[in-house]
Design goal:
CATH topology of one domain: Tetrahydropterin Synthase, Chain A
Number of helices: 11
Helix content: 40-55%
Radius of gyration: 22 Å
Order of helices and strands: HHHEEHHHHEEEEHHHEEHE
Mean pLDDT: 88
Shape: flat
Low-confidence stretches: 48-56, 294-298
CATH superfamily of one domain: Elongation factor Ts, dimerisation domain
CATH class of one domain: Alpha Beta
Strand content: 15-25%
Strand order of the largest sheet: 3-2-1-5
Structural class: alpha+beta
Distance between the termini: 32 Å
CATH architecture of one domain: 2-Layer Sandwich
Largest sheet: 4 strands, antiparallel
């Protein structure tokens, strides 16, 4: 297929590689953008495999939680000025509260009655758009609960109680001391906000992501010219390093970088007097994945 200037620019923006290298990568991969990113990484030409659309949109991340369940929402606006508006913040907080009942279902949340109001969440947003004169979107929601243990939450860059730029909820199943589990859960939520893991453990990691990383690492290792058995060992070693970057339990704990999250869990189990299992987490960063150059502001 024909390689256009726009395709080359998009690849260059994602990787930081040179224009001619980007053109060559697209030619080698028949114009497949993601495959071209991997080709550049394998050749050592990509400065960073940046995710597409990481330009932030405005708005707020909201969290509503108690000990046993919690919900996250992302409510977007066109400008940060509106996000700082008390009326908009009150709406975002109400949507987060309604999200507890929607349990992660975005359509159900939109149709839910807005707390303290007469209209649905979706209609309340439409009214706010008419009042403020700026486009707004309820983009996503997530939910976690536990039977025994705690669901902890954390808001980073907090602009108002329960509202900020990054929100995290994490579920910890445990029959141990509730206060201890909840306190440790907040530490884990803060870690997740900072470290941005992709899964709790290796088994939970997307197999397609592992296969893709392995393929890139294999191509890099083959460039060394070493025997196949040595190349395989190199790849496995680099995969372990990859896991340390993206798997929660394998990451260095931000509160004590000399230990891992898994080791911190073991220490918390002793303090709580019972096993603790991190069963899931959600991390919302405002605007991630939204391309502000598109026609939609959010």
């Amino acid at each position: 297929m024909a390689i256009t200037a726009t395709m080359v620019k998009d690849l260059r923006d994602k990787t930081g590689a040179g224009m001619m290298d980007c053109k060559a990568a697209l030619a080698e991969t028949s114009g497949d953008l993601e495959a071209a990113v991997d080709w550049l990484r394998a050749k050592g030409l990509a400065k960073a495999a940046k995710k597409a659309g990481r330009v932030a949109a405005e708005g707020l991340i909201g969290v509503a939680a108690d000990t046993k369940h919690a919900a996250l929402v992302e409510v977007n606006s066109e400008t940060d000025f509106v996000a700082r508006n008390e009326t908009f913040q009150k709406m975002a907080k109400g949507i987060a509260e309604a999200a507890l009942g929607a349990k992660g279902d975005l359509d159900k949340l939109g149709a839910a009655k807005f707390p303290g109001g007469k209209n649905s969440v979706a209609d309340t947003i439409k009214e706010m758009i008419g009042t403020i004169g700026e486009n707004m979107t309820l983009r996503r929601t997530a939910y976690l609960d536990v039977k025994k243990g705690a669901v902890a939450s954390y808001i980073h860059n907090q602009m108002a109680p329960g509202l900020g730029k990054i929100g995290v909820i994490v579920a910890l199943e445990s029959p141990g001391d509730a206060a201890t589990v909840k306190s440790f859960g907040r530490q884990v939520a803060m870690h997740i906000a900072a470290a941005n893991p992709q899964a709790v453990d290796v088994e939970s990691l997307d197999k397609a992501l592992i296969d893709r990383e392995r393929a890139v690492l294999m191509e890099q290792a083959k460039e060394s010219g070493k025997p196949a058995n040595v190349v395989e060992k190199m790849v496995e070693g680099r995969l372990r390093k990859f896991y340390e970057e993206v798997v929660l339990l394998a990451q260095a704990f931000v509160h004590d970088p000399d230990t891992t999250v898994a080791t911190a869990v073991a220490a918390a189990e002793k303090a709580a007097g019972a096993p603790i299992k991190i069963t899931g987490f959600h991390r919302f960063a405002l605007g991630e994945g939204i391309d502000r150059s598109s026609e939609e502001a959010a």
